[in-house]
TrEMBL record:
The keyword Zinc-finger is annotated on this UniProt entry: yes
SMART domains associated with the record: PHD (SM00249)
Species whose genome carries this gene: [Myrmecia] bisecta
PHD-type domain ranges (all copies): 15-66
Gene3D superfamilies: Zinc/RING finger domain, C3HC4 (zinc finger)
Name of the protein: PHD-type domain-containing protein
Gene Ontology cellular component annotations, sorted alphabetically: nucleus
Length: 185
C-alpha cells in the first residue's frame, strides 16, 4: 500500500485511517466524528467494542471539548478480572492515563495497583469515566512524562505533542480547502 493510499480522505469527508492506531485495514469499522474529519476504531476511542458506542451524534474528544459537551463515555461497567491490566485516567487532566493491575474486585468497584508504583493503590468504580474501555495494545499508546501514557488518538494528545501528519494528507486537506474557497466565492 502506498503512503498516498494509506492517508486518503474519501468524499464523505472523514479520514479512512484510524486516528488512534493508524490502521486502515479494509473492512475496519471506524466511528466518525460528526464535527471534524477524525475517525477511530471503537477500541481506539475508548470503547470495548462498536456496540458500546452511544447512539446519536458522536463527537471525538477534541470536538466535544470545543463544543463544551461531555464526551460520550461507555455506559457499561468495565468488568476486568483480578490480574488484568487497566488504564486509569488522571484526575487532573482526564486524558493522561496510568497503567494499573486489578488486585481485587467487588460488584461495583475495582482495587487497582499502579504498575510503576505498587504502593499507589486505589478503589475505583467500574462505571467511572476514568477507566479506559478500549485497547491496551502498545501501538495505540504513547509515553508521556513519568508513568503517564496517552492514547495515540490525535484528539487526546496534550498541547505541543504531535505525531507528524503525512505530506499526502496535508496536500489533500490544502486542496480541499482551496476548492471550498473557490466554491464559496
Amino acid at each position: 500500500m502506498t503512503e498516498e493510499a494509506a492517508y486518503s480522505v474519501p468524499e464523505d469527508g472523514n479520514e479512512d485511517v484510524c486516528g488512534g492506531c493508524g490502521s486502515c485495514n479494509d473492512g475496519d469499522n471506524l466511528i466518525c466524528c460528526d464535527s471534524c474529519p477524525a475517525a477511530f476504531h471503537a477500541e481506539c476511542a475508548g470503547y470495548a467494542n462498536i456496540g458500546e458506542v452511544p447512539n446519536g451524534d458522536w463527537l471525538c474528544w477534541a470536538c466535544a471539548k470545543k463544543a463544551k459537551r461531555a464526551f460520550l463515555h461507555p455506559k457499561t461497567a468495565l468488568q476486568p478480572q483480578v490480574g488484568d491490566d487497566v488504564m486509569v485516567a488522571s484526575e487532573q487532566s482526564g486524558t493522561a492515563f496510568r497503567r494499573a493491575r486489578v488486585v481485587s474486585t467487588t460488584d461495583v468497584n475495582l482495587y487497582v495497583a499502579f504498575l510503576l508504583s505498587q504502593q499507589d493503590k486505589v478503589w475505583i468504580n467500574k462505571k467511572s469515566k476514568r477507566l479506559w474501555h478500549g485497547t491496551l495494545d502498545a501501538q495505540a499508546w504513547s509515553a508521556g512524562q513519568g508513568s503517564e501514557s496517552f492514547p495515540n488518538s490525535r484528539t487526546l494528545r496534550p498541547a505541543g505533542w504531535a505525531r507528524p501528519v503525512p505530506a499526502p494528507l496535508i496536500r489533500r486537506r490544502a486542496a480541499r480547502q482551496a476548492a471550498a474557497a473557490v466554491v464559496g466565492r
